[in-house]
UniProtKB/TrEMBL annotation:
This is Adenosine 5'-phosphosulfate reductase. Signal peptide: none annotated. The lineage of its organism: Bacteria, Pseudomonadati, Pseudomonadota, Alphaproteobacteria, Sphingomonadales. Binds 1 [4Fe-4S] cluster per subunit. The keyword Phosphoprotein does not apply.
Amino acid sequence: MLLEGDLYGDARLTPEREGKTLAFLAESILRDYPGRVAMVSSFGAESIVLLDMVARINPNTPILLNETGMLFAETLNYQREVSALLGLTNVQLVRPTRQRLAEEDPNGLLHRNDSDACCNLRKSEPLRRALAPFDAWITGRKKFQNDKRAEMQPVEQDGAGRVKLNPLADWTPSDIRDYFDRYDLPRHPLVSQGYPSIGCAPCTSLVLAGEDARAGRWRGTEKTECGIHYVEGQFIAGAGI
């Protein structure tokens, strides 16, 4: 598997770090935003780590998955497998409306000409609607994933003034790997096939040995983020609250 854990040597996930993260999540879900917080998950390569922690606190926490209509079949199968394994009872598939698809992408080829517009149509717009009832949301982003995320804070604010919680912000690849091993969690089936970061099928390619884990996302372009963490076209990171 192409996790970049070697960059962090042999450091292990400590009980203190795991406990601190669980406490942060429990306070957010049960005390600060009871019934008013959702987790957004791609059910991608590392998603099960945070999903497992949320399930340990409250398996009925709303879990929002952007079902763009272009996900790998393996991702949808993995979502069903993981949901059953962890006992998640409130997974919601968030889709673009038929009207918007007919208006903007009737042939399903928008990603070839304008990947930003495609991500906005199939991810950002539907997610904004899905998050409207909530005061806070939980993401699985980590600082090590790319330069833009390196300044991310555990608690931020999105463009709608909603609180955005990043409980794994300071976790390292070694922490992620250790959590997988400690709880014997199943990997996304595409990871072993050379996909260490997994998005929509048309915009995700194999990653070669030595490449960055996200090198296969929108390969050949400067795009590194889908846009759900953008405000007015700009990536927002480091604006902790």
